[in-house]
From TrEMBL:
It comes from Marimonas arenosa. SUPFAM superfamilies: cAMP-binding domain-like (SSF51206), Winged helix' DNA-binding domain (SSF46785). Residues 131-199 form the HTH crp-type domain. It comes from the Bacteria. The keyword Transferase does not apply. PANTHER family: CRP FAMILY TRANSCRIPTIONAL REGULATORY PROTEIN (PTHR24567), HTH-TYPE TRANSCRIPTIONAL REGULATOR ARCR (PTHR24567:SF74). InterPro entries: cNMP-bd_dom, cNMP-bd_dom_sf, Env_Response_Regulators, HTH_CRP, RmlC-like_jellyroll, WH-like_DNA-bd_sf, WH_DNA-bd_sf. This is Crp/Fnr family transcriptional regulator. Keywords: DNA-binding, Transcription, Transcription regulation. GO terms for cellular component: cytosol. Residues 1-100 form the Cyclic nucleotide-binding domain. The keyword Transcription regulation applies. One of its GO terms (molecular function) is DNA-binding transcription factor activity.
Amino acid sequence: MPVKEAESVLSKARVIEFERGQTVFLQGEVAKAVYIVMDGWVKLYRIAPSGAEAVVGVFTKGRSFGEAVAFRGDVYPVSAEAVTNCALMRIEAEDYLRQIRTSPEAAISLLSATFAHLHNLVAQVEALKARTGAQRVAEFLCELSDCESGNCEVILPYDKVLIAGRLGMKPESLSRAFSKLKREGVTIQQNRAKIDDIAHLRVYSEEDPANAWTKP
């Protein structure tokens, strides 16, 4: 968004601190705001009729959520919860809509953001269907890492049950995936992942799944 329009929207926004486990909003509440993660991690989830929790998404710094329903005045189809201590910027939907009505550039920026969300969802579906569990975990670790090459260490941002839900796996499947990644140079110690060669892990996460399936 152009600086002038962004400053207008941000001048009315506020940053809210949430403690780990604190609810941001609940499924079924009227959506009146968009949230941007400034720091920490937030999960979006639904409770199935059986009582089981289904993790829809996990967001960290720079990611936003709530746009699709807030701009329609609809209800949140999911609940949001802080999975670590976090800071969220809350932007009132009406403030953003007011900007859109007066600025085509603001409307274009929203369309661009919507496309980015869609692209991300398509990538997630592709990963779920076309990659092995170990490859999905490898990609997740690469996303967390800020290393370009060589060995590095990644801190897992939340518990393994939530990581499994984020990657569309069961906890026991996640444990098996971690075991398979040992031969790719990944060692898990509590909430830390030590990676011998991040470049090698990226190649592994992106290789043809047909080859990955044939590995012992």
